[in-house]
Amino acid sequence: MTDSAPKVGFVSLGCPKATVDSEQVITQLRAEGYQIVPEFEDADMVIVNTCGFIETAVEESLETIDEAVRENGRVVVTGCLGSRAELVRQRFPDLLAVTGPNARDDVMQAVHRHLPAPHDPFIDLVPKQGVRLTPRHYAYLKISEGCNHRCSFCIIPSLRGDLVSRPIDDVLDEAQVLADAGIREILVISQDTSAYGVDLAYATRFWRGQPLQTRFYDLARALGQFGTWVRLHYVYPYPHVDDVIPLMAEGFILPYLDIPFQHASQPILKAMKRPGNRDRVLERIARWREICPELVLRSTFIVGFPGETEADFEELLEFLDAAQLDRVGCFTYSAVDGAAANALANPVPDALKQERYHRFMLKQQAISAARLQRRIGQKLEVLVETPTQSGYLGRSYADAPEIDGLVHIETLDPLAIGEFCRVEITGADEYDLYAVPSR
Ligand code: SF4
Q1: pLDDT of residue 38
Q2: How far, in Å, from the CA of 128 to the mean position of ligand 1?
Q3: pLDDT tens digits, residue range 49-101?
Q4: 184 with 206: CB under 8 angstroms?
Q5: Could you tell me the CA-to-CA distances from 154 to 124, 336, 342 in Å, in that order?
Q6: Given the DSSP bridges, would you call strands 407-410 and 391-395 parallel, antiparallel or unpaired?
Q7: Is 236 exposed, middle or buried (CB count within 10 Å of its CB: 0-12, 13-18, 19+)?
Q8: CA-to-CA distance for 336 and 344, rounded, in angstroms?
Q9: Cβ pair 230, 186 in contact under 8 A
Q10: What's the CA gap between 304 and 274, in Å, rounded?
Q11: What does the alpha-carbon distance between residue 40 and residue 280 come to, in Å, rounded to a whole number?
Q12: Which residue, by CA, sits nearest to atom 1 of ligand 1?
């Protein structure tokens, strides 16, 4: 890379699905010889990959575009907010281009138009695994795009379209490249991981001479062979998810499931247009824990959805008590432009939303703290991530990066970043564990 290489500033906002889109664009930019620079003023142009999921994300995206326009002026906007091109164009009429999500080719066309590529991509190579925005030891693996659900609070299907799954051999090829590159943890992402393959009628494909169906179970089992941690995100509690729990108990994939339940009261789930029945979900969780006692469950919820009564909210708190989830995120409901839920009656006043949020968090903090206390004395494998003054920060199988807790490892001995270390848990608070290295 020479100093004369054209320089592109890149900002990646939003969820892991957007991160993967960014990785694809950056990989292509690097393959074509562009340089990625951290400061807007040093760049020849800037790409902003935006999020449009909730109003705060829209605001953050607009602020970032504003900053890029002020400090650089030559800006391409892509990602979920880019699907609302009129809104973006109205506010920033001088953008070079605006594209929707998952639009690597459109973004590259805009780049070529305004900042020609320096040389031939077949000569200048990037690592086989592409350019990743995540640390070297973990990577997101996107298995599908879009979603067949129509949750009333969400505009993702209108931004990203219906479910389009990648054939299983294509996904496994990428996983193989990641494993060969030394990645220690693969995080499977999509909008609905449990629906994987439904759009392809679970097509049979061949991988290393073996027939495999493009479906959730086959994928989980095949990914379990690479010797990396495999973590499943965005799974619905459908009956067929039961089949992967034994794979967790047998150590093929991590005993960790990220299931966004969003609520527990039937009228609210109905208004959200979400499947799910509180009692059946609780039965299912109990059965999963019988098969795989180490199973860790993470979820997210929305409080203050239009029409949520005190009784609905109490039911949600009771669900938390009964489900004893390990990791939980909570959002107060915020209207997203274009979402069907905006038309629902009986909006919850902001002050009440906040009050419910705090009651929810207090309840879950106590549950989470009690569950973490039980870890004291256990020995766990931890992926070492960051040095600290008194040792290192790491993550166990129970902790997804960015969203879950951490393990604080106290030690004077050097540990290798991005490698596994066995530790003994010595303490816990509401979110994190404390540990020392062990044999
Ligand atoms: S499952 Fe619902 S919330 Fe998730 S992307 Fe699909 S429509 Fe949106």
Answers
A1: 87
A2: 32
A3: 998 877 788 889 999 999 999 999 999 999 988 888 888 989 999 999 998 88
A4: no
A5: 41, 7, 10
A6: antiparallel
A7: middle
A8: 13
A9: yes
A10: 16
A11: 51
A12: 149
Q: Which single residue is written with the structure tokens 């086989």?
A: 128
Residues, the chain, total?
A: 439
Q: Which of 160, 166, 169 is nearest to 142 (CA)?
A: 166
Tens-digit pLDDT profile for residues 241-260: 999 999 999 999 999 999 99
Say which amino acid occupies 218. Answer: D
CA atoms within 13 A on the CB side of 128: 11
Q: How many CB atoms lie within 10 A of CB 41?
A: 9
pLDDT band at 337 (very low <50, low <70, confident <90, very high): confident
- If you average pLDDT over residues 271-294, what whole number do you get? 93
- Percentage of the residues of the chain whose pLDDT score is greater than 90: 71
**Rounded Cα–Cα distance for residues 216 and 196 (Å):** 6
151 Cβ inside 6 Å of ligand 1: yes
Atom number in ligand 1 closest to CA 234 = 4
For tokens 């959200």, name the residue.
272
pTM: 0.80
Q: How far is CA 245 from the centre of its chain?
A: 21
